[in-house]
Specification:
Elements lengths: L5 H13 L4 H13 L10
Helix pairs in contact: 1-2
C-alpha cells in the first residue's frame, strides 16, 4: 500500500465504500484507519 497522509487515507476509504470496490481493499483501508485512530465519519446515502 502507498504511504498516505491521514486525510488521504480517510478520503480513499470513503471513496472505496462509495464505489463498492473489492472487499479486501476496503478491509485493508479500514484496518489502517483504525490503527491510526482516525474516524472517517462515513455518511450512507
Amino acid at each position: 500500500m502507498k504511504i498516505m497522509s491521514d486525510e488521504m487515507l480517510v478520503a480513499a476509504y470513503r471513496d472505496a465504500l462509495k464505489s463498492d470496490q473489492n472487499k479486501s481493499e476496503i478491509e485493508t483501508l479500514k484496518t489502517e484507519v483504525q490503527k491510526r485512530g482516525l474516524s472517517p465519519k462515513v455518511e450512507k446515502e
